[in-house]
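Thread: Newbie trying to understand structure tokens

Hi all, I'm a second-year student working on a class project, and my supervisor (Dr. K.) asked me to get a predicted structure for one chain before our next meeting. I've only ever worked with sequences, so writing a 3D structure as a token string is new to me. If someone could post the tokens and maybe explain what I'm looking at, I'd be very grateful. Here's the chain:
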Amino acid sequence: MSSTVAPVLPQGAGYGVVVGIGLFFALLMACVSYLQNRYTQYSTKTSEEFNTASRSVKPGLIANGVVSAWTWAATLLQSSTVAYEYGISGPFWMTDAAGATVQIFMFSVLACKVKQNAPYCHTFLEIVNYRYGKTTHKVFVFFALMTNVLVASQLLLGGSAVVTALTGMNVYAAVFLIPLGVCIYVVLGGLRATFLCDYSHTIIVMIIILYFMFDVYTTNDMIGSPSKMYDLLKTASAERPVSGNVDGSYLTLKSNSALVFGVIQLCTGLGTVFLDQGYWQRAIASRPTTAVRAYIMGGLAWFAVPFGFATTLGLAAVALTDHPSYPTYPNEMTSSQISSGLAAPFGATALAGRGGAVALLLTLFMAVTSSASSQLIAVSSILTFDVYKTYFKPKATPEQLIFVSHVMICIFGVVMACVACLWNGIGIDLGWLFLVMGLLIGGAVFPAAFTITWKGQTRVGAISGAIGGLVAGLIAWLVEAKVYYGEITVETTGANYPTLAGNMASVFTGLVLTVTISLIRPDDFNWERTRAINAPSPSPSTTIVSESQPTDPKPPTIETVPEDPADKKLTEDPSALQRTFVLAVIVSTVLSLIMDIIIPIPMFLSHYVFSRGFFTGWVVISFIWVFVAFILCGVLPIWETRVFWGNMVRRMVGRKVVVDAVPQHESGQESEAQAVRVESKA
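---
Reply by user tm_fold:
Sure, no problem. This is what the structure looks like when written as tokens:
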């Protein structure tokens, strides 16, 4: 941040939000975990519950978790940054349509295949190990951990930059203190805790987005209506025309730079979704009957977050740059401030002063911590099941696995902070890391996806695609920077065209190599091998005994996983999920075509500049979409879990759930789905 822009809030506000709110959620989660362990059948003391939420999470909460996991600080800041730089096309091309939503739609196909071909796995890397062996497994563990490290450090890099800009808090203190409360509540409650905290965080983010939207487009003295915003953007287009936009306008989807940005983010988004264990973990935690629906709803709901946020604060920053209330007035933002993602914080400050700064600070903190919780539990699962259990102690007990999970969460909390400090210390900002990340991980995207979807992919094809894509991406990136700009520096390697070349080379080289090599001598893999991963023992109960081997001299430790009869039927008969798979392919394809081709391309090719009425309709759609997302992520999870919470409250006040005509699990705990009658205790 430039030293010429004074912080709007005192340092105490920064420490209060980062430490105070973080510890509040940690305390809240401690209470929830205590009640959950005492009054429900889901105990956080079992590794199945801790790492997979007993595979029982309903679609509304999964959709909310998807929105939360994808709502990074970088998402909000970068979508507003490209809105500031390129106008209305920025958020649409980069993070909304081309950049991120379609990857969630596409991942719904993988979510269905996980339930069909590996219903009891803990991580997608377990599938790699069972299918290809240890060498390939180690390669993909490397790419998965690199993805999580890059994503987690981005979260802290963007979040700490905003906290420092708004409050003057020491940036390194912010980096280390932000994950503190998150580590505590994830250790206490595991994956289900992340879902519950994700829910509260996402609702807060959406409420604040709606607050800014109503302020900007209905009540604010400086803007106050879509029509006034339209006039201010027209003025800005005349005074500060955008290079590459038709007529230099901020009001068009015909933006060459935004389109390039969109392609880069499409490649990056493929890697950060397909290789992030956090998304696989949500698919694993979901119910087979609703996994696809959850990801489709999550994709639709997530669209609203950056779309509404950037269409409001990103455009407000453009409109108010020349207003005395803007923090950089009378100067424009510097390239460093723009790349650090400060357009949204400055826009919020210009709109509402200290109140706007506080609201923005709270929004970014919620986004950072909810996404960080996803990263922590994801890395913990990888290090526990794919490193510790696979290579060090294959016969680890559930108690040992839980202990290792707790330790790994704390270790990764420190690692992500240290890496973020490293980036900050060497001058790497959020914008640079955001663009470069895809070329580092893109080669492994299609090999990872084909591992669970294509029985013909070979071990050599998977390894060659992942490593070959990385090498090709690095070469294309550096060569393009040298040829186009004449030198290789932080600035040139973070520019659009070198990162575009690197991202595309990485993803497509990985695709071509794995397909070509596999087709030379295709495999004919039998999915029954992956369906056997952690499969329940043959017994009338629904227990999992994979944590100990049947040949152990002592009896195996049994962990009970409540399972809905409909889910159990689909798990035992994978062919029953085929219709769901076809539906996922059709829906994801149609929605992707609509959002990437049918809507934007005609407006891009026709060089259409928004009219006043069209812009007003665009704003109205953003309002409607955010309200729909609020219903999907805020109202639906409460409605779906009403039986669970009702039964827990009944137990707390001295009533119990009695199961009629359905045998109990071995632990004597009943499934919520099987509860049919409530009676008072004698």
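A couple of things are worth pointing out once you decode it. The chain has 26 helices and four strands. The first strand starts at residue 543 and ends at 544. Feel free to ask follow-ups in this thread.
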